[in-house]
Each structure stands twice: as C-alpha cells, then as structure tokens.
Amino acid sequence: MLSRLVAVNTLTKNKIKIITKECIYLEKEIIMCGIIGYVTKEKTKTVIPILLDGLKKLEYRGYDSAGVAFLNENKVDIIKESGPIVNLEKSLNKEIESNIGIGHTRWATHGKATKENSHPHRCGKMTIVHNGIIENYLQLKDFLQKENYSFISDTDTEVAAALIDYLYEESGNVLDALNDFIKKAKGAYAIAIICDDFHDRLFVIKKASPLIIGVNENENFIASDVPAILDKTNKYIILEDKDYAEIYADKINVYRDKKKIKYKINDFKGDKLLIDKQGYEHFMLKEIHEQPDIIKNLIDRYLKKEFILPDITKYQKIIVVGCGSAYHAGLIGKYLIEKNLNIEVSCEIASEFRYKKLFLDKDSLVIAISQSGETADTLAAVKISKACKAHTLGIVNVKESSIAREVDDVIYTEAGTEIAVATTKAYSAQVLMFILLSLEKNVSKIKKLKSLPLLMQKLINQVDDYKRIASYIQEKEHLFFIGRLIDYAVAMEGSLKLKEISYIHSEAYASGELKHGTISLIEKGTPVVALVSDKSIAEKTLSNIKEVKARDANVVLIVSEESNLISDCYDYKIVLPSILEEAYPLLMIIPLQLISYEVAKLRKCSIDKPKNLAKSVTVE
Ligand code: AGP
User: Fold this and answer.
1) Measured distance CA(360)–CA(365) in Å, rounded
2) Minimal-distance CA residue to ligand 1 atom 11
3) What is the predicted pLDDT for the residue at 32?
4) Band (112; pLDDT cuts 50, 70, 90)
C-alpha cells in the first residue's frame, strides 16, 4: 500500500491523513453517543436535573443506555441504567445537592447495551464518560493489568479511565496525564472526567469526536453539541483535536501539548431545541403536520428574496451525497436538476462515496445533504471533496452543525428541530430546496408552488384513508413499493419510513425491474404500493401494476390526478391533486409517511424512537 502513496496532505485540521492515487483516508470520525457535564459555584445546587435535561437533548445520538456521575458529599456517585433516559430518571434522586457532574447517553457499538457497559466508568481516582473508540485498548489493557489494574466491563472506556489514572499516579499532575493520554491512546475520543482529588473542576480531552464547552456566569457546561446546552447559555467554545481542558465554574483553561492556548467564545445563532409534542400523540405526527407551514415559509421567503440559492449551472459535474432519507432527497434532486438544468448529476450514498475512487476537481460541485449536519459519513464525504478541490454545498437543517461549518456554502432547510428519528419535515424541506435549485429563478414556475402547502394539508387530512390502508398492511410480513424515475426515488423513502418505524420488511423497486427477478416473491395478497405521478410514463408503470395484479398482489395505488391513469387495477387508491410536476414528490410523500405512521401505531411500535436507531448517525 505504501508504495502507491503519491502525496501527503497537511490539512491536519480536517484530519486528512494521506492522499493516494485511488482515494483519501481519513481518521475515523466516531462520535455516536452524547456527553453532558456541568460545574457550578453553588455548592448547594442539585446538578442532576441539569444533567438529565442535557441528556434528553442528546438522546438523538442514542438511547441504548444512560448514566450520570456526580459529587455527593465528597464522593463520586455513579448511577446508570440500560434503555432510554427515562429508565435512568426513575433511579435518580433529583434532590441530592451537588456542584459537579457528568452524564452520558449511549448507542452501543462495541459491547451490548447493558448496565455494566454503560457510562460513566470509574478506575482509581477517575470517573469518566467517553464517546468514540480507543483503538489500541487491548494493548493498553494488557499493560495496565500488569500494573495491577483490574476491569469489570469489556469496554475501552474503562481502560481509558485506568490509563488516565495510571498516568496521573505517575506524574502527580492531571493535566500532564491528559497530555500523555493523547500520546498513548489511538483512535477517537471525547472524554469528560471527574477526578477524586479536584472537586471544583471537570477535565476534558478531545480528539476526532466533537466536544464543546458552554460558558456562563459562575457555571460552565460541556456537551457533544451546542443545542444540548442552549437552554442555559448560547456562548460556547469549540475544542480542537488534541485539546484538553480544565473547567471550573468561573474559569476555563484549554491546553494543547502542555501549552495554555487562547480560545474563542462563540455566540450560537441557531434555533433552540423545542421538545414539546404540542398535543400530538407522537413527535413524528407533529412533524408531519408541520410540513405545509415549513414549505409555505420557505417558498414565501424565497420569493421575497430573503434567501438566495447558489448558481449550480457553472459546474461541469454535480455529485449529491447523503445517507438514508437525505440520500433519497438527493435522488429526487438528481432527477430534477438533470431534467430542468440539463446537467448530469450523480447521487451517492455517503458511506460508499468516502471510500470509492473519485473524479473530482475544481469544476465539480458536491452537494451534501443532512438533517442533523452531524452524520459521520456525509461529513467525511465533504472533507474528502474539499481535499479534491471540489466546491461543497451543504443542504442542512441544524444550524452551525459540523457539516454546516465544514462546507463552502450552506443552505439551511429551516424545518425547525426534528425530534422523531424517522425524518419527515426535514426530508420535505430538502426536497423543496432541490425543486427550487432546479427551477433556477423561474419565478412563474416557482409561483405555481404557492398552492402546494394547501394541497399537502388536504392530503394530511385524509387520515381515514391511511388508517384503512394501514389496517390492511399491519399484519403483512413483506411489501413492495414500485415507481419509475422520480416516483422510484419517492418509493425508496416510503419503503424506508415503513421499515424503520413499523419493522415490516419492504423493498422499493423500479417498476420495470420487478420482472427481472423479484416478481417471484409476489403472491396472493402481497401488498404492492404503486406510485404514479409522471403522466409521461404512467402507462408504463400501469403495465407493471397489471403484472403484479395478475399474480394476485393487492395494489395500493397513489396516483396523480394529472397522470390520467384510468385503471381498476388497485385495491386502495389515493389521488394526488394537480400541481407543478416538480412538486409531486412533496405530495406523494404525505400518504406514505402517514400510512407508515398508522401501521406503526397499530403494531404498537416505538414510533419516535424505533429500536436500534438513533436520530443522528455519527459513527461510520
Ligand atoms: C430517516 O428517517 C433516517 N432516520 C435516516 O435515514 C437519516 O435520514 C440518515 O441517517 C441521514 O441523517 P442526516 O440527514 O441527519 O444526515
């Protein structure tokens, strides 16, 4: 491998290691899970509600287990539980007085989601919470065992606690121990520490895993991201890789390689996290209902020139990257840009893009789509693209998130805080941005979008139709979503929505491809959701619908009024009202979101926090 290296890049800030002819290798960005920490001057304050509040805001990063550590009458108490944060909350006495504490919410990567494996971990005088992976933890563990350390969990975090403790015992100075730790521990880590010898401060270390310090009068915070502390302060410090710090209630010292460094205190200008269902049974339902307003605001603001979109026609090549639903929105963007702007667009899954051979240069535009702005694969794709000199444009929902900060230009989707793990409103806002980009200031067409919010609302209101379809689907084991071209992209999103919240297996297929193999799975009663918005290919899709009907499938047909599809080949039918053709994906997705929601409800699934998932996927 080394013989193939052609250049060494010095962009250390972006963690770009090595550029080869084939691809660029990045240090791993391993930032799943959430960290919160708090220190105050008030000795009699109870920190537990503050830690819990912060953890709830970070729960989007994982909810397999959670724990806190806090000073309780001169000793550090640790309480942790498997499962969501409510489990931890039940085990905590919120009245205990304390001035200092740390907390963690976990999405299991290494080791099961058990109480033993959850954080905080303690060794010697160190109690720590940790995001990331210590890659050489087995060698370190071996060494530490010979130094008489013993371990009760299988985690790398306990090894990190022991190593910090060992280095502290050796040097007699915590800060030196932290600097030594950075030299010895390989991998990615954001670590928060309470040391038994110092009850007035927290310590932190950061490498390749985000960590910020929230700054306030006589109290300071640490967190994995800024929104977690916004209720308390909007002032924050971003730690850079290999920084370590000591955080008192009224003083913060940041160090790099044994030198105290100057830091900048930033002002957060984005939205606060709003965690309120406002009467809806689930956040997902609330967020589905918010879509017409979000779309209306964006269209109005765009027409009033309150935000402008970049000219993307000047690039020779456009690549759209994203994961999951963001990737699906990108697929819609590909169809629209190709059709309206006559530029070839490729759409790539970010986790593949980051490791494949790339053909990027200064004439390429890479559009990175992300609700959270924290998705590790998408962030890595941006960094690689920049290293290849491509221009990067982010379509991001969370302001000042990692991707928003990293890209050359950013468009904010302004969908507001999205809490449900299954994205709905942020996805729709992404799709709208692609519609606007592809219409390229064609005001007369854009004005035709003005009826869109109302039509979306009309579809949202057809709840009885969705309930009826859901009660038919709820007991099925598999189903198919089919469509052609842009409808195929929407089918992928519909299929993902159903899978992630109802746990029913489904596949999205390009309608014409079904007969090349998968049609063998169609049998009596198999549900097939057929999407037909584009009148130019409606007849073609109809042939495919007939093929599955001939094999006794049950067809849920979602069809545009405009496609003029006259057919009795369906068992259930939803008609989409007429709109500018570019906007159909935004109508089509409403029944798909609501059918999935109703199915998940009937199956009594955990709709807002589906099993095994996290809102923001910050591991690769
Ligand atoms: C969709 O409902 C998902 N939960 C998931 O696919 C998501 O879209 C994906 O992980 C990308 O997230 P991002 O938009 O925050 O980057």
Assistant:
1) 8
2) 323
3) 63
4) confident
Instruction: Provide the CB-side half-sphere exposure for 108 (13 A, CA).
Output: 18
Tell me yes or no: is domain 462-604 CATH 1.20.1440.120: no
- 615 assigned to active site: yes
Enter the CATH code of domain 29-269. 3.60.20.10
pLDDT 10s digits, 452-479: 999 999 999 999 999 999 999 999 999 9
Place of tokens 């605001």: 297
Q: Which of 33, 123, 195, 347 is catalytic?
A: 33
The CA distances from residue 250 to 93, 200, 201, 214, in Å, are 27, 10, 10, 12
Nearest CA-CA partner of 213 in 260, 257, 182, 245: 245
pLDDT of residue 75: 94
| More reliable by pLDDT, 230 or 108 | 230
- Say yes or no: CB of residue 326 within 6 Å of ligand 1: yes
Which atom, in ligand 1's list, is nearest to the CA of 378? Answer: 16
Dihedral pair phi/psi, residue 117, rounded to 5°? -80, -10
How many whole angstroms from 324 Cα to the centroid of ligand 1? 5
**Check whether domain 276-460 has CATH 2.60.40.1520, yes or no:** no
Q: Whose CA is nearest to atom 2 of ligand 1?
A: 422
In the chain, what percentage of residues exceed pLDDT 90? 73
Structural domain boundaries in the chain: 29-269, 276-460, 462-604
Cis previous bond, 49, omega within 30: no
282: pLDDT confidence band, cut at 50, 70 and 90?
A: very high
The atom of ligand 1 lying closest to the CA of 430 is 14
Active site residue 33: yes
Contact call for residues 381 and 366 (beta carbons, < 8 A):
yes
Kindly give the number of the ligand 1 atom that is closest to the alpha carbon of 426.
14
| Per-chain mean pLDDT for the chain | 89
Does the fold of domain 276-460 match that of domain 29-269? Answer: no
Whether 326 contacts 425, CB under 8 Å = no
Nearest alpha-carbon partner for 249 in 376, 118, 71, 80? 71
Instruction: Extract the tokens encoding 481.
Output: 């979503």
Task: Measure the CA–CA gap between 550 and 73, rounded to whole angstroms.
Answer: 74
What is the per-residue pLDDT across 323-348, written as a single tens digit (0 to 9) for each? 999 999 999 999 999 999 999 999 99
Q: Is the CB of 323 under 6 A from ligand 1?
A: yes
Run of H or E including 40:
strand 34-40
The token duo for 225 is 């991201």
State the catalytic residue, choosing from 56, 57, 232, 615: 615
Q: Which two tokens stand for residue 543?
A: 């042939």
Question: Pick the residue with more confidence: 15 or 576?
Answer: 576
Mean pLDDT of 286-290: 96
Mutate to test the pocket of ligand 1, among 29, 63, 283, 325 (most ligand atoms within 8 A of CB): 325
pTM: 0.73
